Amino acid sequence: MKRTFIVSLAVASLALQGCQAQPTETQARQQSEPAVSQSVAQHSRLTLTDFTDVAAATIDGVVHIKTEMTQITPLYQSFFGFIIPQGTRRQVYNAYGSGVIITTDGYILTNNHVVQDAERIYVTLNDRRELPATLIGNDPATDLAVIKIEAEGLTYIPFGNSDQARIGEPVLAIGNPFNLTSTVTSGIISAKARNVNIIENPRGQETPLESFIQTDAAVNSGNSGGALVNSRAELIGVVTAIASGNGYYTGYSFAIPSNLAVKVASDLQHYGYVQRGYLGVQVTEVDAKLARQTGARAVKGLYVVKVTHDCAAERAGMQVGDIVLRIAGVEVNTFAEMMEELGRFNPGDKVEVDYERGGRTYTVEATLLNSQGNTQIIRR
User: Fold this and answer.
1) Exposed / middle / buried, residue 253 (Cβ in 10 Å: 0-12, 13-18, 19+)
2) In the chain, which ranges are continuous DSSP H helix?
3) Which of 64, 98, 143, 162 is catalytic?
4) What value does the mean pLDDT take over residues 111-140?
5) Which residue in 98, 190, 221, 224 is the catalytic one?
6) pLDDT digits (tens, 9 = 90+) for 138-184
7) How far apart are CA 218 and CA 166, in angstroms?
């Protein structure tokens, strides 16, 4: 894992923007097949769990990733007190991380920050085979990437339903910390929909999408891109970061939820680019003070402070001062929850939005648009 950070508890009140008003007529979006089949099971009450069978079923589905990158630095020589350029020096650097096999034919999901600067990528399977990998696509906004190795008949980990994951549920984290291959640690889900402001987006056009699963399963440098699995041996998260001031595990780590990761993986496989649908509003979380000021019926929801012109929300009739309560039937009370829910949809998808205005609740159907203000597929 390349990055460490100190968790900030500040509440985010960021902008979920991206739609630019254009006169382009809305077109129907072409639907794609999912990257892999989702395994959805009815959630039953959990008790103490023996994870030996879970570990055996999933450990071959996690790989070790090594990347190489070249840095060119200038060489200088001191001559009678003057610094004189003497050419350049090429130095090769290695970085390490983990990845999760998501198909039998070699598609692997990992973190963007593991592979984004790589000139060469190598994957070591749990059976010690090392194979070169190709970058299929990456998404800085979610810190996810898909790479591909040429292999068949691989063990993969099926996607579970991260919405059904519960706080207190036991989980395993599988990865390669400190280059120690095939390491398994256990813990519980400590929190959901965490936004800790760690994702940097070099594209500068998209709002980073953070809605992490927080766990106390021990994670260290090298676990990035590894698997967070539940007691049914399903992938419910992709490990991405730790909360630490010294670079080592100090109690909490974070994973990208599977219901978001499966959509990103599918888009990267089909288009090399994530098809992201925008509502076109800026919001702030409703607290007790804001609820009193606005006359809201309850301390919940997201207060709309700006509506982007000619974007999905405005076309659906939403206004500044509305309080968003639910997206597609799912209650949203934090910016992270809203980002996660919208992140599952594509441009052209029709999404129900429930909001409060003047003490009354309304429901509208908004057609999400892409960053260019239409519903066309964007390809890399």
Assistant:
1) buried
2) 52-58, 112-115, 258-271, 288-294, 312-315, 335-342
3) 143
4) 95
5) 224
6) 999 999 999 999 999 999 999 999 999 999 999 999 999 988 778 99
7) 19
Overall average pLDDT of the 191-219 stretch? 79
Which of 2.30.42.10, 1.50.10.20, 2.40.30.10, 1.20.1070.10 is the CATH number of 281-367?
Answer: 2.30.42.10
- Cα–Cα distances (Å) from 322 to 286, 292, 306, 312, 364, in that order, read 11, 14, 10, 15, 12
Residue 196, pLDDT above cutoff 80: no
Is 143 a catalytic site residue?
A: yes
- Enumerate the domain spans of the chain: 15-21+47-60+157-271, 281-367
The string of DSSP codes covering 164-212 is: G--TT-EEEEEE-GGG-SSEEEEEEEEEEEE--S----TT-SS-----E
pLDDT of residue 98: 96
Contact 228, 235 (CB under 8 A): yes
Query: What pLDDT score was predicted for residue 195?
Result: 83
Q: How far apart are CA 136 and CA 142, in angstroms?
A: 16
Pairing of strands 62-79, 120-124: antiparallel
Q: Which of 64, 98, 113, 139 is labelled catalytic? A: 113
CATH of domain 15-21+47-60+157-271: 2.40.10.10
Q: Answer yes or no: 113 catalytic.
A: yes
